[in-house]
Amino acid sequence: MIAPTGGGWQARVVPPVDAVLRAAAQLGPFCAVDADAGPGAVDLADGRRLLDTRAAAVSAVLGPAAGSREVQSLVHLGVVARVLSPALGAALVTGVLPVPGTVVLQPAGSNPVPMAWSGVHGVAVGTPEDVAAALVEHWLGPLVGPWSEAVATRSVSRRVLTGNVVSALNGTAVVVGGARPDLAPHARAVLDALLARGPLSGTGGWRPDGGFARRSCCLLHRLPGARPCADCVLVPPLAR
C-alpha cells in the first residue's frame, strides 16, 4: 500500500489496527482511543441521548445564560472533533483509516472525554484524495451523519453543523502538523480534497495568511464574554 513517511508517500506494509491506533495516540490526547469509556458512556448512534446528556453537562458549566442552540452546536462540534481526530490522525500517520463498528463516549467531563471503539477494521488509503474519500464513505456518512441529523432536529442549522465538521477536521490537521511537521502538507492536502468535492465542498477556504476559515459559525460568540473562533467566518479577512 501507500502510506506517508517523512519523505512523502511511499510503499510500506499495512500495520495492524491496534498499531494504527497506538500511532495516532502519539499525536495527542484528542487522537487517542481508550480501552473503556467508563460508566454511563453513550453510543454515538444514540444521538438524542448523547446530545441530551452531553448538553446537560455543558450547560451546567456554562450557566443559564448559554442558549440551547449554542450549547447544542458546541456539543456537536466537540463530539465530532473527538471521534474524527483518531481517524484522521491515524490515516495521516500510518496510511490506514481505522473504522469502528461502534463508538461510545463519556458524556461528562471536559474534552477530550473518554472514548472507546469496538469492531474496528482498517481501510488502506494512499493519496490525500484517497483519505478524503474514505473519510466521507466510512465516517462522515454512516457515523457522523446520523449524529449531525440528531442535532439538526433540535433547530440547529445544518449549515452550522457541516461547518462544525470541517472545523473539527481542520483542528485535527493542525494538531497533526504540530506533532509531525513533516505531515502538515499531507494534512492540508486532505482538507483541500474534502473542500473540493463531496459533502464538505465549499464549506471553508484559506485566508491570505494561510490560516483556515470555515464559511459558517459555531455560535460560540453568542455566549457571554466569548469571541468568534479563529477559523470563524466572522473573523476578517473572510476566506476566499
Structural notes for this entry:
Residues 5-11 have low confidence and may be disordered. Helix content is 47%, strand content 13%. The chain has helices at 17-25, 47-62, 68-94, 128-152, 158-179, 184-196; strands spanning 2-5, 8-11, 42-43, 96-99, 102-105, 115-118, 121-124, 204-206, 212-214. The protein has one domain (17-222). The longest helix has 27 residues, at 68-94.
Counting H and I runs of at least 4 residues, what is the number of helices?
A: 6
Give the C-alpha Rg.
17 Å
Q: Helices and strands, in N-to-C order?
A: EEHEHHEEEEHHHEE
> What coarse outline follows from CA principal-axis ratios?
globular
Instruction: Report the structural category.
Output: alpha+beta
Domains, number: 1
Beta-strand segment tally: 9
Strand content: 5-15%
Topology:
Layout: E1 2-5, E2 8-11, H1 17-25, E3 42-43, H2 47-62, H3 68-94, E4 96-99, E5 102-105, E6 115-118, E7 121-124, H4 128-152, H5 158-179, H6 184-196, E8 204-206, E9 212-214
Antiparallel strand pairs: 1-2, 3-5, 4-7, 5-6, 8-9
Pfam families: FhuF_C
InterPro entries: FhuF_C
GO molecular function: 2 iron, 2 sulfur cluster binding
A few lines on this structure:
This protein is 47% helix and 13% strand.
Q: Descriptors for this entry?
A:
single chain; alpha+beta; three-stranded antiparallel sheet; 6 helices; 9 strands; Ferric siderophore reductase C-terminal domain-containing protein; 2 iron, 2 sulfur cluster binding
